[in-house]
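The following record pairs a protein chain with its ligand, flavin-adenine dinucleotide.
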Amino acid sequence: MTKSNKHNRKSSIYTDKKGFNYYQTYSFFGSKDGLKKKIQKNLGKEKTSSQLKHEKEYWDNYYNKIDDSFKSTKITKKSSSPSLQNNKTSKLNNNVPSGELGQKWTEYRSSLPLVSPANKQKQEVIIIGTGLAGASAAASMAEMGYNIKAFCFQDSPRRAHSIAAQGGINAAKNYQNDGDSVYRLFYDTIKGGDYRSREANVHRLAEVSGNIIDQCVAQGVPFAREYGGTLDNRSFGGVQVSRTFYARGQTGQQLLLGAYSALSRQINSGKVTMFTKHEMVDIVLVDGHAKGIIARNLVTGALEKYSANAVVLATGGYGNVYYLSTNAMGSNVTAAWKAYKRGAMFSNPCFTQIHPTCIPVSGDYQSKLTLMSESLRNDGRIWVSKTKGDKRSEER
Ligand SMILES: Cc1cc2nc3c(=O)[nH]c(=O)nc-3n(C[C@H](O)[C@H](O)[C@H](O)COP(=O)(O)OP(=O)(O)OC[C@H]3O[C@@H](n4cnc5c(N)ncnc54)[C@H](O)[C@@H]3O)c2cc1C
């Protein structure tokens, strides 16, 4: 919670279970001094009727607020967005925690307030998108106890564009004993991103890379293996170590099927409600926070409203804003644009993944778009002239 929001918050009430007893905590805020009053009641083994009444009032009030906000949300075409108008005064806050680079996120995570298991059951989260990002987020959060409403516009989460990814996924496991480490993966990724990526976030990615592979294997992703049964690696992206985990040329497909299996398990257990063929057309804000969405049911054409405690956008890339793209036609920025129109800020929006086959032909000496598979490049292949003694200049 940011400092300014903390001052806006008036009160909160929550119930914890410690040992065999329930405790109810009321916290009142309201002045610049922050916390004014905190009352903790031991409710005993069972919840009392007054405690249940208070809880009901609290949540009724909360949902009424969301409902009011839905009523005031008009789906109209706007000539320009509020954030466009406020551009001069807006400041982009990347929310990267302070501290030593390698410790920023680790320390931040250790100091975050925890949500008790009993309270997780009461929270609802909307997740837009069920590709690799959305499906795994929905499955993981449901496993933790949150109640999830997941949306995608396709007829099944298995149709997400993640299915198209081929090459593999990097992790600093150092299985090949070729000197790999979290730092090397961090460094290579920063370099590969032309030194424009956020360093702390990339470091975090490198730190958790090994766990991601473990999670995928646990979900049943059939990564390539050596004859002895251990996971195989290949070298990708011009790096000098072999750290890419892959499943032939269809890694994305296998990863998505793994994430989909985990998601299906949670749908079956009732923790995830899946809304396929639903396109998010707007985001509903309450006090500046995303608390709901408006979605179009693509079968009936009806506009529907959904509310939650938080909204996660996992709507994928938007390479189709460019003329040449290997992305599916659905990867077209509509969801991110809605968020932008509601005030979300963009950093480096032109920095999307592109495939070398989409670099336009730049001269008549090129017979087609230039591409050398990364796997060939890393096995030492180089471009050579077709004919011996080619007279073309070096840059051609
Ligand atoms: C050809 C190709 C090869 C690749 N190779 C690799 C590789 O080797 N290694 C690697 O790491 N990465 C690779 N990538 C990149 C990687 O595949 C993607 O970055 C990743 O899969 C994106 O996952 P995602 O879940 O964010 O998005 P997606 O899989 O695109 O999912 C987006 C989801 O959002 C939903 N959605 C979007 N808008 C809305 C809306 N308005 N309302 C409701 N739902 C919405 C869609 O229905 C979908 O479920 C490759 C990509 C391509 C195209």
